[in-house]
Amino acid sequence: TGQPHEVKDEASGKVYTAKDIILAPGSIPFVPPGVTVDEKTVYTSDGALELNSVPEWVAIIGSGYIGLEFSDVYTALGSEVTFIEALPNIMPTFDREIAKMAERLLIRDRPIDYRTGVFASEVTPGIPGVKPVTIKMIDANTKEHV
């Protein structure tokens, strides 16, 4: 409509006025069954924002918009990325045309590998510098370990 809009912060009482307002309250990390998070070698999306160093390689379980954002950040910082996606294609909840465009612009020319149709059935933390993280994967169709 071109008219200003207002949003009131209930806690402070402050009113924000703007032509366009985007509400982006964040998300609560989802940890699937079988995944053990220690925030030392296996992180939630919150913990992954607080790393002290850039990993050489990182596996991202799930290839939705948050996973895509992290792959963009980590590859820009020099990490190699592997997506593990249980559904048949990456970015499964995206509109197909948008997913194709995102793949072309954000994935194709970067050090990103992706495994689709595989479910991370168990993720066990490692010991930094001693033992790597263990990821057990199951084929989403046949239910066989891969």
TrEMBL record:
Domain FAD/NAD(P)-binding, which positions? Answer: 8-125
> Per its UniProt record, what Pfam families does this chain match?
Pyr_redox_2 (PF07992)
Q: Which domain of life is it from?
A: Eukaryota
The family database entries (InterPro entries) matched by this protein are listed as: Class-I_Pyr_Nuc-Dis_Oxidored, FAD/NAD-bd_sf, FAD/NAD-binding_dom
Q: Name one GO molecular function term.
A: dihydrolipoyl dehydrogenase (NADH) activity
Name the Gene Ontology biological process terms. 2-oxoglutarate metabolic process
Query: Got a GO cellular component term for this one?
Result: mitochondrion
Query: Which protein family is it in?
Result: Belongs to the class-I pyridine nucleotide-disulfide oxidoreductase family.
> Which protein are we looking at?
FAD/NAD(P)-binding domain-containing protein
